[in-house]
Amino acid sequence: MHIIILPSEYFVTKKHPTAGIFQFDQAKIFIEKGNAVGVLAVKPYFTVKEYIRGLKTIFVSRFGFGNALKRIIYLLFPVPFALNEENLNGINVFRFQGSYGLIRTQDSAGRLEKWKKMGDYAMARYIKKYGRPDVMHAHNMVYAGMMGNYLSNKYSIPIVVTERSSEHLMRDIPDVLESMISKHFQEMNNLNAVSPSFVKQLERKYSIEEDKVKWFPNVIDRVFEDENVENQSSGGKFVFLNVANLIPIKGQEEMIRAFGTAFKNDNGVVLKIAGDGYLRQHLESVVSELGLTNVEFLGFLRRERVVDEMRKCNVLLLPSYYETFGVVLIEALALGKPVIASKCGGPECIVDSTNGLLFECRNTEQLTHSLKEIKENYREYDHQKIKRDVIKRFGREEFYKRIRRIYETAINDYNC
Known about the structure:
The chain is an alpha/beta fold and about 425 residues long. It has 18 helices and 14 strands. Helix 6 packs across helix 7, helix 7 packs across helix 9 and helix 12 packs parallel to helix 13.
């Protein structure tokens, strides 16, 4: 099968190495199974503000003369010069490195037209070189899904959409963009979202008919799936680990306060926080205010370090206010680690009594109780069973069987 992936974000760039990582993981599975895979990564790189900077010396000092010159060329000749091709682990990636031009930040329709223009140009070049794909898979409606709908109609290629963006529910969407999203959801078939809760929320928000959107979860990265189970943390201490951006939606302040209540004077228990963000200084001040000496901030970690820290921890914590799924949970479970997560949408389809605990979102008292309970009952968890069960549900073999059926259905329906 020949598959084209359409990401809505940057796709594994040097500056954004984790952007599009879920799509990258899926693409590697497709390659492994003998499929041909391409990616049209056409998210524009910069905006009108940087054009203005391009006329100043600061542009050169920020990007270097060579990159500054490239960006000016991309501004003057945005389509033919800003699209580059590279081969990434056997995946043919057509990457747009241009800009949104003079489009205003809130001009959703203008942004979509830019995506359609670049997607059309990239698809034509891709087909000329590699042939027409059997199916397209867009990740998130804004803007890859909407662009993909246009390309599907123009090039007669069936399309599948997987929605995973929390922005639909956590941010104010302009009326114009919301209307555009709703229109495309109504027009398109083969729609998926990454958790049952998210499916229902999308149906309500965009007045989508019931059961039109299906549940299709994320897949465990093979790095975690192939790791052995280790039940002891390093240094003989009991380690709780949180891996997330340091932003309000991730609930880290409540986590720190709950941990402080549960284990303030227990040096045998440690809370490690992996990630970075603008809340770091505030969270560090909360740790100082509570007088905690057993909380560590690890900063941003690359994937190999995340695996290492998960391997050494006892329990993973995810106290978010909202998650469409919760990939970090299945990664920890794949290492045999029990988890504690808030009831915030995605975790409810992952966590049960055999692999961890759920608590009411933003409820610090319940989280405190869960922290104590899981430590006290830690020996009751079967770590090998935790790993087997999560791989059965979210491993790459199950993922591939499900996505293959989805693609075949999309192709058959399109050809009928």
